[in-house]
């Protein structure tokens, strides 16, 4: 059987993700412990009726199965996730609020920036393949000491803080190959050792030897170092260790302030069979406002024919630019042509609605700062409307922060929900429920109602941690497809010029000892969803959740 979702591409989180690139990057704001005014409250959607197919007759999905296999969704992250508290001085984090002046100073200091005091953020989701940093046209004679200092800062961050022992020789060899590729110099024959400092000295000597062979070599300031850091990070073999440009690093820091605004078109794109499709639109974003629809195939962008290889061209649009999208839509004999302007909009944390008059559907779109509070508001409102059960939809949710706060809406605070393990320690991660601002502050919502959790391969990091907690605390079944397998925490280390390197500092394992980083969480009930399902409005995963709850409640 063909999988519903292809394996998420290995990569760096922030440029940001392919999808965030399509949606846009968060705007710059000063880091603050206060809730940002741009945060959207939980968005209430219209009630809906979900029909369960009659098992006695062929379902649409079964009818399709008799024909050639349909394309399937390649889940990609919808937005950025957030950095874990950044260790300082090689020790565990000393957590203090970051002031605006500290953010500005990050571009001029190689010391790790201290993140605001936030509880146990989840790791970044799997994201796009590591890009080669853009080369600007302002070439100049290489300042070797400056470039080496930048590379060394990144190398030290990997060597000292990666959750597992890195292959320093392999990392540095990849760096030398990149230098040879950029400069055109002959790659020296070297033999690296076990000692990290000795290996750095070997790298430095080889670096200087290559540049000595072309003393007139010019290149933009810091760009050679960025390229080397880029490949060194990729060589680590951990999909959450990656290079961050200055703008990406700032965007990553902004998310800690609770700013989930974005500038873009507001589309989640997937590729299959060499085509690009819109999977979801952000409500109120530019594409949604002009009538784009889930399931639309992006056939052309301006005058460029779009395929699975080049669709990310839409990421290059600038704010307030208008571009022509030519879309193929089922039921339309002619293409749908839309003029869409790239503008600022807000990514919702939570969307919710009633299903079949008694089930509260809560779609957690991203684990932003206010995820527990907005989920709590949705739960309270749905209870008022008669909800006697929950479906928590974590599909295509790339993760973020405050997962233990969300678990705390269903589980008592202080319970161990999992463990964070690095080279030396295995520390418990505990449930908390103290960040909601309403009457439920400090305790889970009561009474505890039956629930089901929807997941897919777009569910990463905090989404996976929540899914594991739902399983371990027996909150309800997991329905959908296997998750991304991106569980752990990261820290970002500034490189001295505004850029940074993200390093995975620990791996997460569940309360019951499940170690699924790199493999993903397997649902209790595996149900796939194809593009044809999306286009026709079928959602067999959601229908399965409804069926489970209907049967469970009927027994009571």
Describe this structure in words.
- A seven-stranded mixed beta sheet has the order 1-13-14-15-18-19-22, with helices on both faces. Strands 4, 16, 17, 20 and 21 form a five-stranded antiparallel beta sheet that branches.
- The radius of gyration is 24 Å and the shape is globular.
- The protein contains 14 helices and 22 strands.
- The two termini are 36 Å apart.
- 26% of the residues lie in helices and 19% in strands.
- Residues 1-40 and 54-136 have low confidence and may be disordered.
- With 556 residues, it is α+β, with helices and mostly antiparallel strands.
- The chain has helices spanning 18-23, 60-65, 100-105, 144-161, 168-183, 196-212, 223-235, 246-255, 286-289, 371-384, 403-407, 462-472, 531-536, 540-554; strands spanning 43-44, 139-141, 218-220, 242-244, 261-264, 267-272, 275-281, 297-301, 304-305, 322-328, 336-341, 343-346, 350-355, 359-364, 389-393, 416-421, 426-430, 451-455, 478-480, 488-494, 500-510, 525-526.
- Helix 4 (144-161) runs antiparallel to helix 6 (196-212), helix 4 runs parallel beside helix 7 (223-235) and helix 5 (168-183) runs parallel beside helix 6.
């Amino acid at each position: 059987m063909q999988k519903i979702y292809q394996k998420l591409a290995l990569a760096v989180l922030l440029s940001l993700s392919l999808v965030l690139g399509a949606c846009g990057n968060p705007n710059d704001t000063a880091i603050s412990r206060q809730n940002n005014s741009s945060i959207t409250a939980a968005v209430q959607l219209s009630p809906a009726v979900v029909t369960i197919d009659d098992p006695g007759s062929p379902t649409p999905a079964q009818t399709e199965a008799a024909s050639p296999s349909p394309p399937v969704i390649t889940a990609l992250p919808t937005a950025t996730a957030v950095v874990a508290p950044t260790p300082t001085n090689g020790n565990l984090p000393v957590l203090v609020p970051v002031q605006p002046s500290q953010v500005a100073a990050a571009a001029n200091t190689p010391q790790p920036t201290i993140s605001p005091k936030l509880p146990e953020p989840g790791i970044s989701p799997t994201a796009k393949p590591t890009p080669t940093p853009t080369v600007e046209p302002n070439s100049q004679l290489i300042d070797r000491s400056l470039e080496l200092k930048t590379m060394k800062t990144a190398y030290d961050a990997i060597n000292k803080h990666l959750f597992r022992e890195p292959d320093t020789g392999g990392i540095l060899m990849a760096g030398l190959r990149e230098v040879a590729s950029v400069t055109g110099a002959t790659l020296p024959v070297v033999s690296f050792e076990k000692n990290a400092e000795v290996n750095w000295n070997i790298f430095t000597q080889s670096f200087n030897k290559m540049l000595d062979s072309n003393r007139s070599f010019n290149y933009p300031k810091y760009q050679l170092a960025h390229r080397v850091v880029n490949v060194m990070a990729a060589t680590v073999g951990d999909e959450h260790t990656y290079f961050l440009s200055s703008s990406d690093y700032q965007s990553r820091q902004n998310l800690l302030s609770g700013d989930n605004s974005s500038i873009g078109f507001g589309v989640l794109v997937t590729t299959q069979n060499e085509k690009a499709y819109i999977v979801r639109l952000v409500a109120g974003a530019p594409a949604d406002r002009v009538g784009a629809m889930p399931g639309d195939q992006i056939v052309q962008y301006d005058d460029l024919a779009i395929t699975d290889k080049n669709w990310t061209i839409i990421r290059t649009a600038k704010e307030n630019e208008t571009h022509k999208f030519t879309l193929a839509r089922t039921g339309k004999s002619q293409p749908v042509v839309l003029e869409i302007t790239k503008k600022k909009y807000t990514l919702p944390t939570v969307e919710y609605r009633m299903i079949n008059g008694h089930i509260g559907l809560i779609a957690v779109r991203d684990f932003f700062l206010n995820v527990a509070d907005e989920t709590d508001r949705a739960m309270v409102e749905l209870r008022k409307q008669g909800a006697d059960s929950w479906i928590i939809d974590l599909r295509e949710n790339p993760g973020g922060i405050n997962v233990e706060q969300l678990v705390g809406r269903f589980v008592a605070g202080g319970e161990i929900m999992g463990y964070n393990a690095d080279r030396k320690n295995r520390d418990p991660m505990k449930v908390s429920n103290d960040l909601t601002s309403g009457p439920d502050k400090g305790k889970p919502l009561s009474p505890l109602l039956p629930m089901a959790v929807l997941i897919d391969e777009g569910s990463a990091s905090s989404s996976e941690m929540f899914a594991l907690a739902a399983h371990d605390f027996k909150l309800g079944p997991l329905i959908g497809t296997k998750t991304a397998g991106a569980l752990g925490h990261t820290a970002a280390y500034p490189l001295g010029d505004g850029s940074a390197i993200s390093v995975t500092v620990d791996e997460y394992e569940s309360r019951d000892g499940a170690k699924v980083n790199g493999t993903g969480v397997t649902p209790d009930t595996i149900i796939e969803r194809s593009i044809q399902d999306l286009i026709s409005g079928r959602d067999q995963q959601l229908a399965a959740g409804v069926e489970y709850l209907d049967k469970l409640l009927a027994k009571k």
